[in-house]
Amino acid sequence: MALLVFDLDGTLVDPLPGVVHAVAATCQAFELRQPNVSEIRPYIGPSVRGLFMALSGAAEGSDRLREIMAHYWRVFDDESVYEHRVYEGAALMLGRLKRQDHRVVVITAKPAPFARKVAHHLDLNLFIDELYGPAPTEPWPGKVAFVETLREQGLLNPPGYFIGDRRDDMRAAVACGFKALGVTWGFGSQDELRQGGTDHLFQSIESLDRWLAQELPGPEIRELLNRAE
Q1: Looking at residue 14, what is its pLDDT?
Q2: CA distance 136 to 149
Q3: ∠ at Cα 201 (85, 151), nearest 5°?
Q4: Which residues contact 212 (CB under 8 A, 6 or more apart)?
Q5: Which domains does the chain have, with CATH numbers?
Q6: DSSP, residue by residue, the chain
Q7: 33 with 56: CB under 8 angstroms?
Q8: How far apart are CA 83 and CA 9, in angstroms?
Q9: Of the candidates 16, 41, 78, 172, which lies 20 to 30 Å from 85 by C-alpha distance?
Q10: Cis peptide bond N-terminal to 159, omega within 30
Q11: What pLDDT does 68 receive?
């Protein structure tokens, strides 16, 4: 049984419509300039907290930033969760890995309660053993520090495979003893992933699935129906 760690946004799920919606609603509520999509995209993965700090001038730890983020997550929870979409082929890949009895973990910068709600809405909870993310009120420390903390707490035990679409995913993989697998259908460029230290680059979910099937051969021995809620 292998350990496979997946990023969520940009790797398994396209969050862009939901994020754009929640950002627009929050900017309107706080009379902030409305950013365009190209301005929002770089903050998907690293956390939209940085986007609102740039738009508002609010400092980390300030009351204003707490108010802005609280409003953002209210909109996200009520509306934006339902605008997320699973990338085509992702559920089939995860299902095959779980039928082989591999351990599938998701680590995301999205606060854990909202990430779990997205996973539940999209039925990804059927395939995921654990999902880790920060608390809604916590600043995001970065993927490297977050994964290192999980490892120190005994919640992750490399070696294994770390799959993601951003530089920080690759850096976390390298720093914490995982094989780094970079995917290009999300929000990070090939150059960004190479700079992060990726071991392999994949252009599609189908190519990633084929590679994993060759890397981790074995029978599909586990029944998934007993994992459904």
Answers
A1: 98
A2: 17
A3: 75
A4: 4, 93, 97, 161
A5: 3-14+85-227 (3.40.50.1000), 16-83 (1.10.150)
A6: --EEEE-SBTTTEE-HHHHHHHHHHHHHHTT-----HHHHGGGTTT-THHHHHHHH-PPTT-HHHHHHHHHHHHHHHHTGGGG-EEPTTHHHHHHHHHHTT-EEEEE-SS-HHHHHHHHHHTTGGGT-SEEE---TTSPP--HHHHHHHHHHTTS--SSSEEEESSHHHHHHHHHHTPEEEEESSSSS-HHHHHHHT-SEEESSHHHHHHHHHHHS-------SGGG--
A7: no
A8: 13
A9: 172
A10: yes
A11: 97
